Amino acid sequence: MLTREQELLLAHRIAGGEREAFTALMRRHNRRLYRLARATLRDEAEAEDALQEAYLSAYRGIDRFRGESTLATWLSRMVLNECLGRLRKHARRQSVLPMVASDGMEDAPSDARNGPEGALMRIQIRTLLERRLDALPRGFRTVFVLRSVEELSVEETAACLGIPEATVRSRHFRARSLLRESLAHDIDAAGRDVFDFGGARCDRIVAGVDARLDD
Question: What integer pLDDT is reported at residue 126 of this predicted model?
């Protein structure tokens, strides 16, 4: 992590036109900022576009960075402002016309976690988690992503989002509770279909038995 003096020097270099320094800055923060945009907008393409626009704004305004917060926090607020602006614009149009971590894999056999089947299972779990996370209120989504996915501290998350630390704690607790409830419902529903016995399997078994009866 850079010190305040190092961040100010980096900002000064970028303001002076050092594109390589800005490229390094983007690569350092890309993952966290993309996840923040994705959690806010619930759309991958829109999140990428918003992140690019936020970076452009940051590049043009980097001379205003005074080191009162970290560059990560400063950039996070840029991204949030861009995302919230897009949401407001979409809302106006509507009114005129409106990862997780793969914890579910821990109990799977080691050979199931590796290879194509394991990769497919991880994709399915991640997709399910992303879908359930998208269903949460925006305030819960952003807190959950920063705390549980990016593993920021309560203090860092509060600084990025500009909300009290107590709000971060309560939203994170509530987000985790809601996710557990929705995922438990999915598991219960899936349990009713486990070892599915469709018509094709029925026909195959009956045909196999019929063929052996003629032996």
Answer: 78
DSSP string, 158-212: HHHHT--HHHHHHHHHHHHHHHHHHHHHHHHHHHTTTT---HHHHHHHHHHHHHH
pLDDT tens digits along 156-178: 999 999 999 999 999 999 999 99
> In which domain, by residue range, is 79 found?
4-96
From the CB of residue 182, how many other CB atoms can be counted at a distance below 10 Å?
17
Domain boundary among 47, 76, 96: 96
Model pLDDT, residue 125: 76
Question: Is 70 exceeded by the pLDDT of residue 192?
Answer: no
Whether residue 15 is predicted with pLDDT greater than 50 in this model: the reply is yes
C-alpha distances (whole Å) from 150 to each of 30, 104, 143, 154 are 12, 18, 10, 12
- Residues 79, 118, single domain; the answer is no
Asked if 40 and 142 touch (Cβ cutoff 8 Å), the reply is yes
Same domain, 130 and 84: no
pTM passes above 0.85 = no
Q: Give the CB-side neighbour count of residue 106, counting CA atoms within 13 A.
A: 5
Residue recorded with tokens 């419902």: 185
Does residue 152 sit in helix, strand or coil? coil
